[in-house]
Amino acid sequence: MGTRDGELWTRRELLALGTTDDGIRRAVGDGTLVRLRPGVYADAARREGMSPEQRHLDDIRAAVTGDRSVVSHQSAAVVHRLGLWNPDLTLVHTTVDRPRGGKRTTRRHLHAASLPGDHVTTVDGLPVTTVARTVADLGRTLSFEAAVCVGDSAVRSGAVTAAEVHDAVAVGSRAGRRAATRVVTFLDGLSGSVGESRSRVMLHAMGFPPPRLQVALYDESGRFLARPDFLWDVGVIGEFDGFVKYSELVPTGSTPRRVLFEEKRREDLLRSHGWVVVRWVWADLAAPHALAERIRRAFELAAALPDPRTW
Asked: Domain of life, per the record (predicted)?
């Protein structure tokens, strides 16, 4: 059976190609086709090479075929290509503009809520909630940490402002509005990645004062030194090291080994100018109390040292 890259098959299309209903059932049974919903299928081999987000896009297209609902929540975030932390993509989320009547099935979560026309847009042919409405919905329904990650990503991309998200939160039900408002007030587009957003939430939860983000540092002669992820004026710098920094996002002409070398050289340079540097990785965020203790020791050390020689 042939395939079309990036598209799904409907039963009508398969029958028009000469396949029978028995043939479709056999293809599903032997794993050649994946049934995404009644009458909509995808090529199994193609899906095996896709990321969870790409497979979810297939699921979304299958779910809204011939439908009047609007893609929303986690599914809308995938369509808008926003950063998500540990997303649950088992269900396709859509919303209909009505006060009640939402329902959940094994493949879909249909939300019923007020949905003004200016909260809906079209992306790649899909009706989807705007970025502002998407972040507002997730602020109501996700954990604070996960909602901040997607919200920071949206603001960082330039697609929306925190004020626009705040306006979207004010529409509709009061349920979850307080939680969403708390998320909005915490958003910062200078947070450079999901890992940095999770770090900000951890620092807040552990009682640290808010750090400054992406501050350009220069030595006494005016030479640029670095732009650290997190900076406290008491003399402490925090750096989140996601593995992606040393893999997929390596600049053209460089290597992961070279990028790692430059990162360590930059750290030595900052220390030589009087800064105390703390680095952490994904695994450290799973043990926040231990990481917080390391950062507190850095604060204590910085308090006993002269002010950093940078501006």
From this structure: Bacteria
